[in-house]
Design brief:
The chain is α/β, with parallel strands linked by helices and about 90 residues long. Helix content is about 45%, strand content about 25%.
Length: about 90
């Protein structure tokens, strides 16, 4: 399922994912199993509250690679397709 991140419009990183969830643009949230729980727990809770699907990645390294960045990522939010068309594919913040 991580392959979705290679072609979807994605907000990478805690700040970007938090903004995507808050604005209603996130349709799916990927969280790394080895990420700091203090960082991802609030995102997990926020996603559950608003009904956004959560997918767990095996590691930050695997999630970062799937998101197209050279470092690990704690999370990535897949954005609605309409948002990606307006913004031009990926939004990557480290």
């Amino acid at each position: 399922m991580l392959s979705e991140l290679e072609t979807a419009s994605v907000a990478v990183g805690v700040k970007q994912a938090r903004r995507a969830l808050a604005s209603g643009r996130a349709v799916r949230l990927y969280l790394a199993k080895d990420a700091d729980p203090q960082l991802i727990r609030p995102l997990e809770q926020q996603a559950r509250e608003i009904g956004v699907e959560i997918v767990w990645a095996e590691s930050m390294k695997a999630l970062g690679k799937a998101c197209g960045i050279a470092v690990g990522a704690a999370c990535g939010a897949v954005l609605s397709s309409a948002d990606g068309a307006q913004r031009g594919q990926k939004s990557k913040a480290h």
